[in-house]
Protein backbone atom coordinates (compact mmCIF):
# COMPACT_ATOMS: atom_id res chain seq x y z
CA UNK A 1 0.00 0.00 0.00
CA UNK A 2 1.13 3.52 -0.76
CA UNK A 3 -0.71 5.39 2.01
CA UNK A 4 -2.60 4.70 5.24
CA UNK A 5 -4.35 7.05 7.66
CA UNK A 6 -4.88 5.78 11.22
CA UNK A 7 -6.65 7.83 13.89
CA UNK A 8 -5.90 7.80 17.61
CA UNK A 9 -2.24 6.80 17.47
CA UNK A 10 -0.86 8.40 20.61
CA UNK A 11 -1.26 5.15 22.60
CA UNK A 12 -2.90 1.72 22.74
CA UNK A 13 -4.10 0.01 19.60
CA UNK A 14 -3.42 2.99 17.35
CA UNK A 15 0.23 3.13 18.35
CA UNK A 16 0.41 -0.65 18.11
CA UNK A 17 -0.95 -0.58 14.55
CA UNK A 18 1.69 1.96 13.52
CA UNK A 19 4.42 -0.23 15.02
CA UNK A 20 3.07 -3.31 13.25
CA UNK A 21 2.93 -1.55 9.88
CA UNK A 22 6.49 -0.23 9.97
CA UNK A 23 7.70 -3.77 10.74
CA UNK A 24 6.19 -5.17 7.54
CA UNK A 25 8.63 -6.40 4.86
CA UNK A 26 7.12 -3.70 2.63
CA UNK A 27 5.77 -0.96 4.92
CA UNK A 28 3.50 1.72 3.46
CA UNK A 29 5.26 4.59 1.76
CA UNK A 30 3.19 7.06 3.76
CA UNK A 31 1.72 6.32 7.18
CA UNK A 32 -0.38 9.18 8.53
CA UNK A 33 -0.93 8.87 12.28
CA UNK A 34 -3.25 11.29 14.07
CA UNK A 35 -3.21 12.42 17.67
CA UNK A 36 -5.01 15.21 19.50
CA UNK A 37 -1.93 16.46 21.31
CA UNK A 38 1.67 15.84 20.26
CA UNK A 39 2.82 16.60 23.80
CA UNK A 40 1.01 13.43 24.89
CA UNK A 41 2.34 11.30 22.02
CA UNK A 42 6.01 10.88 22.93
CA UNK A 43 6.22 7.24 21.84
CA UNK A 44 4.62 8.04 18.50
CA UNK A 45 6.97 10.96 17.90
CA UNK A 46 9.99 8.81 18.77
CA UNK A 47 8.80 6.17 16.31
CA UNK A 48 8.33 8.82 13.63
CA UNK A 49 11.86 10.10 14.24
CA UNK A 50 13.13 6.62 13.39
CA UNK A 51 10.85 6.06 10.38
CA UNK A 52 10.59 8.78 7.75
CA UNK A 53 7.38 7.29 6.29
CA UNK A 54 5.43 8.17 9.47
CA UNK A 55 3.70 11.53 9.37
CA UNK A 56 2.29 12.60 12.74
CA UNK A 57 -0.82 14.75 12.26
CA UNK A 58 -2.05 16.73 15.26
CA UNK A 59 -5.81 17.17 14.98
CA UNK A 60 -8.99 17.15 17.05
CA UNK A 61 -11.21 15.10 14.76
CA UNK A 62 -14.33 16.47 16.44
CA UNK A 63 -13.46 19.77 14.79
CA UNK A 64 -15.04 18.88 11.47
CA UNK A 65 -13.81 22.06 9.79
CA UNK A 66 -10.27 20.72 10.21
CA UNK A 67 -10.93 17.58 8.13
CA UNK A 68 -10.48 19.37 4.80
CA UNK A 69 -7.04 20.64 5.85
CA UNK A 70 -6.02 17.11 6.89
CA UNK A 71 -7.13 15.79 3.51
CA UNK A 72 -5.19 18.52 1.70
CA UNK A 73 -2.01 17.71 3.64
CA UNK A 74 -2.34 14.03 2.76
CA UNK A 75 -3.02 14.86 -0.89
CA UNK A 76 0.05 17.10 -1.05
CA UNK A 77 2.36 14.56 0.63
CA UNK A 78 1.18 11.65 -1.54
CA UNK A 79 1.54 13.71 -4.68
CA UNK A 80 -2.11 13.34 -5.57
CA UNK A 81 -1.93 9.54 -5.48
CA UNK A 82 -4.69 9.30 -2.89
CA UNK A 83 -5.28 7.20 0.21
CA UNK A 84 -5.37 3.40 0.18
CA UNK A 85 -6.67 2.88 3.68
CA UNK A 86 -8.57 4.92 6.25
CA UNK A 87 -8.43 3.11 9.59
CA UNK A 88 -10.89 4.76 11.99
CA UNK A 89 -9.35 3.56 15.24
CA UNK A 90 -9.85 6.47 17.68
CA UNK A 91 -12.53 5.86 20.29
CA UNK A 92 -13.58 6.41 23.89
CA UNK A 93 -15.41 4.41 26.54
CA UNK A 94 -17.02 6.21 29.51
CA UNK A 95 -16.76 4.74 32.99
CA UNK A 96 -20.53 4.72 33.52
CA UNK A 97 -21.89 1.24 32.77
CA UNK A 98 -25.29 0.47 34.36
CA UNK A 99 -28.49 2.34 33.63
CA UNK A 100 -28.62 4.07 37.03
CA UNK A 101 -25.16 5.57 36.39
CA UNK A 102 -25.65 6.46 32.72
CA UNK A 103 -25.47 10.13 31.83
CA UNK A 104 -26.80 11.82 28.69
CA UNK A 105 -23.52 13.70 28.33
CA UNK A 106 -21.55 10.43 28.28
CA UNK A 107 -23.81 8.99 25.60
CA UNK A 108 -23.58 12.07 23.39
CA UNK A 109 -19.79 12.38 23.72
CA UNK A 110 -19.28 8.69 23.00
CA UNK A 111 -21.59 8.69 20.00
CA UNK A 112 -19.79 11.69 18.55
CA UNK A 113 -16.29 10.26 18.96
CA UNK A 114 -17.07 6.63 18.11
CA UNK A 115 -19.70 7.10 15.40
CA UNK A 116 -20.04 10.61 14.03
CA UNK A 117 -16.31 11.25 13.63
CA UNK A 118 -15.62 8.07 11.61
CA UNK A 119 -18.55 8.82 9.30
CA UNK A 120 -17.53 12.43 8.69
CA UNK A 121 -13.85 11.53 8.24
CA UNK A 122 -14.78 8.86 5.70
CA UNK A 123 -16.81 11.50 3.86
CA UNK A 124 -13.88 13.94 3.89
CA UNK A 125 -11.41 11.27 2.73
CA UNK A 126 -13.63 9.95 -0.05
CA UNK A 127 -11.87 11.93 -2.82
CA UNK A 128 -8.53 10.51 -1.67
CA UNK A 129 -9.90 6.96 -1.53
CA UNK A 130 -11.37 7.34 -5.02
CA UNK A 131 -8.01 8.48 -6.38
CA UNK A 132 -6.23 5.48 -4.89
CA UNK A 133 -8.88 3.08 -6.13
CA UNK A 134 -8.74 4.47 -9.65
CA UNK A 135 -4.96 4.22 -9.76
CA UNK A 136 -5.13 0.52 -8.78
CA UNK A 137 -7.75 -0.63 -11.30
CA UNK A 138 -5.89 -3.90 -11.85
CA UNK A 139 -6.74 -4.97 -8.28
CA UNK A 140 -10.05 -6.39 -7.11
CA UNK A 141 -11.80 -5.05 -4.01
CA UNK A 142 -9.19 -5.17 -1.23
CA UNK A 143 -7.34 -3.11 1.37
CA UNK A 144 -4.36 -2.76 -0.96
CA UNK A 145 -6.59 -0.88 -3.43
CA UNK A 146 -8.83 1.35 -1.28
CA UNK A 147 -10.63 0.66 1.99
CA UNK A 148 -12.24 1.99 5.15
CA UNK A 149 -11.74 -0.12 8.28
CA UNK A 150 -13.84 0.98 11.26
CA UNK A 151 -12.64 -0.22 14.65
CA UNK A 152 -15.79 -1.58 16.23
CA UNK A 153 -16.28 -3.98 19.14
CA UNK A 154 -18.12 -7.20 19.87
CA UNK A 155 -19.88 -5.10 22.52
CA UNK A 156 -21.64 -3.45 19.59
CA UNK A 157 -23.17 -6.78 18.60
CA UNK A 158 -26.86 -6.81 19.57
CA UNK A 159 -27.07 -10.58 19.21
CA UNK A 160 -24.11 -11.20 21.51
CA UNK A 161 -25.29 -8.86 24.28
CA UNK A 162 -26.05 -11.12 27.25
CA UNK A 163 -24.92 -8.90 30.11
CA UNK A 164 -26.52 -5.51 29.41
CA UNK A 165 -25.09 -2.20 30.56
CA UNK A 166 -22.44 -0.14 28.76
CA UNK A 167 -25.14 1.96 27.13
CA UNK A 168 -22.93 4.65 25.64
CA UNK A 169 -20.24 2.33 24.29
CA UNK A 170 -22.55 -0.43 23.03
CA UNK A 171 -24.86 1.95 21.19
CA UNK A 172 -21.98 3.88 19.64
CA UNK A 173 -20.41 0.72 18.23
CA UNK A 174 -23.74 -0.72 17.06
CA UNK A 175 -24.35 2.58 15.25
CA UNK A 176 -20.84 2.44 13.76
CA UNK A 177 -21.59 -1.05 12.47
CA UNK A 178 -24.74 0.27 10.76
CA UNK A 179 -22.73 3.10 9.23
CA UNK A 180 -20.08 0.67 7.99
CA UNK A 181 -22.73 -1.40 6.25
CA UNK A 182 -24.11 1.69 4.51
CA UNK A 183 -20.61 2.78 3.50
CA UNK A 184 -19.96 -0.65 2.02
CA UNK A 185 -22.97 -0.20 -0.25
CA UNK A 186 -22.43 3.46 -1.13
CA UNK A 187 -18.71 3.11 -1.87
CA UNK A 188 -18.86 -0.19 -3.74
CA UNK A 189 -19.33 1.53 -7.14
CA UNK A 190 -15.96 3.19 -6.50
CA UNK A 191 -14.36 -0.17 -5.57
CA UNK A 192 -13.73 0.88 -1.98
CA UNK A 193 -13.90 -1.89 0.64
CA UNK A 194 -15.60 -1.17 3.99
CA UNK A 195 -15.41 -3.48 7.03
CA UNK A 196 -16.14 -3.27 10.78
CA UNK A 197 -13.44 -4.90 12.92
CA UNK A 198 -13.43 -6.09 16.53
CA UNK A 199 -9.83 -5.90 17.85
CA UNK A 200 -10.32 -8.29 20.75
CA UNK A 201 -10.07 -7.47 24.43
CA UNK A 202 -6.60 -5.94 24.54
CA UNK A 203 -4.55 -4.79 27.53
CA UNK A 204 -4.63 -1.04 26.89
CA UNK A 205 -5.67 1.97 28.95
CA UNK A 206 -9.20 1.48 27.64
CA UNK A 207 -9.17 -2.33 27.81
CA UNK A 208 -7.79 -2.47 31.33
CA UNK A 209 -5.24 -4.67 33.09
CA UNK A 210 -7.44 -7.78 33.07
CA UNK A 211 -7.60 -8.01 29.27
CA UNK A 212 -6.14 -11.31 27.98
CA UNK A 213 -4.51 -9.96 24.81
CA UNK A 214 -1.33 -7.92 24.47
CA UNK A 215 -1.03 -4.99 22.08
CA UNK A 216 1.92 -5.95 19.86
CA UNK A 217 0.92 -9.50 18.83
CA UNK A 218 -2.73 -8.50 18.48
CA UNK A 219 -2.08 -5.49 16.27
CA UNK A 220 0.26 -7.58 14.13
CA UNK A 221 -2.56 -10.11 13.71
CA UNK A 222 -5.01 -7.31 12.88
CA UNK A 223 -2.77 -6.11 10.06
CA UNK A 224 -2.39 -9.67 8.75
CA UNK A 225 -6.17 -10.12 8.86
CA UNK A 226 -7.15 -6.92 7.06
CA UNK A 227 -4.57 -7.58 4.34
CA UNK A 228 -6.62 -10.68 3.47
CA UNK A 229 -9.97 -8.87 3.23
CA UNK A 230 -11.59 -9.18 -0.21
CA UNK A 231 -14.96 -8.57 -1.86
CA UNK A 232 -16.65 -11.29 0.21
CA UNK A 233 -15.76 -9.38 3.39
CA UNK A 234 -17.25 -6.08 2.22
CA UNK A 235 -19.86 -4.75 4.64
CA UNK A 236 -19.08 -7.46 7.20
CA UNK A 237 -18.25 -7.51 10.91
CA UNK A 238 -15.11 -9.46 11.74
CA UNK A 239 -12.84 -10.25 14.64
CA UNK A 240 -9.10 -9.51 14.74
CA UNK A 241 -8.35 -13.09 13.66
CA UNK A 242 -10.75 -13.00 10.71
CA UNK A 243 -13.70 -14.80 12.35
CA UNK A 244 -17.09 -13.38 11.33
CA UNK A 245 -19.20 -11.85 14.14
CA UNK A 246 -23.01 -11.58 14.36
CA UNK A 247 -24.73 -8.21 14.21
UniProtKB/TrEMBL annotation:
Pfam family, one: adh_short
Alphabetical keyword list: NADP, Oxidoreductase
CDD domains listed in its UniProt record: carb_red_sniffer_like_SDR_c
Record-linked SUPFAM superfamilies: NAD(P)-binding Rossmann-fold domains (SSF51735)
Gene Ontology CC: one annotated term: cytoplasm
Gene3D superfamilies, per the entry: NAD(P)-binding Rossmann-like Domain
Top-rank taxon: Eukaryota
GO molecular function: carbonyl reductase (NADPH) activity
Family note: Belongs to the short-chain dehydrogenases/reductases (SDR) family.
Protein name: C-factor
Organism field: Stomoxys calcitrans
Amino acid sequence: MNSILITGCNRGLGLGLVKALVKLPKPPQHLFATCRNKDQAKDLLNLAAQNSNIHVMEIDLRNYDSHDNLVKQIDDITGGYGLNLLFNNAGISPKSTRINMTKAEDIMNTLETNTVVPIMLAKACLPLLKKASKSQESLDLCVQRAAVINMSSMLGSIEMNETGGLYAYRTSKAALNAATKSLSIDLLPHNILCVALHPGWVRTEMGGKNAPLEVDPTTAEIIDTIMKFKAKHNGGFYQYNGDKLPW
